[in-house]
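Memo to structure team: turn this sequence into structure tokens by end of day. - J.P.
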Amino acid sequence: MTVVDLHSHFFPEAWPDLAERFGTPDWPWLRRDGPDRAMVMVGDKEFRPITSACWDADVRLADMDRDGVDVQAISATPVLFAYGRPAAHAMECARIFNDALLDLCARGQGRLVPLAQVPLQDTDLACRELERCLAAGMKGVQIGNHVGDRDLDDSALVDFLACCASLGAPVFVHPWDMLGGCRLDAWMLAWTVGMPAETQLSLNRMILGGAFDRLPHELRICFAHGGGSFTFLLGRLENAWHRRDVVRGLSTAPPSTYLERFDVDSAVYDGRALQYLVDVMGPSSVLLGSDYPFPLGEERVGHVIRSCGFPSEVERRLLGDNAVDFLGIGAGG
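Reply from structure team:
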């Protein structure tokens, strides 16, 4: 069995001074606090403490061996997206971080699979960078779940997803820039409340906004964090869709009929929640995801799946086969 973790992140060990390069403030940068520790800064504010697991391939591989993970798909941390910046600046950032990720994965003994980032605010530039990254050996793309006030049913974002489908590039959707404002500032509520809500909102918009109806079935798209709160509140959406015409938007069928159009990762951190997720989505549509190497990720990758007592064929699909199919990487990476 090939075990594949679809959801992990990285930071380079260093990157250029973006504030100096672009002449604007509040760009992310890295404050080194020791040989194995650093603080991601945004302007003069501390954003997140990280360890060398973010940039050291040997540390990652050792952790993967500890947890029985064969292959790890790696994507940027969303603070690096730069969607709110000029598109040309976001394009340059994407190139910097994509090249850094390619370098990290080149040191991964064939076990680290890179997913690109793109300047999603500009469809043409995003498609161009994706094509460059695929040619360089990347296996897909990670995108944020919105660009400002534009959700994934926005025509330009649908055009980008159609581009991904035409290129055969799987898409991993990660929540970011969470709704809720200052009410979510305390106690990391933006992560524990805002992220699940963001992902549910994205799926609702794709369904009700007609995005899935406009996109080819060949599109492979997976939503992080178990699809957020979507599956757990699907009954509420389904009830509203049948009872109120205004809820239906541009969708051509009830929300539950779109479940076959997307996948979700397993990062729900609770066996009962995971069993329900698999029951709703089906065992072929849930992929192991850990959010490694961050503290809010799964401490021992794959533990929740392995602890649920799934039939061996279901466990095999969740731990690796589904991700192998999604990424198109073939057995063994």
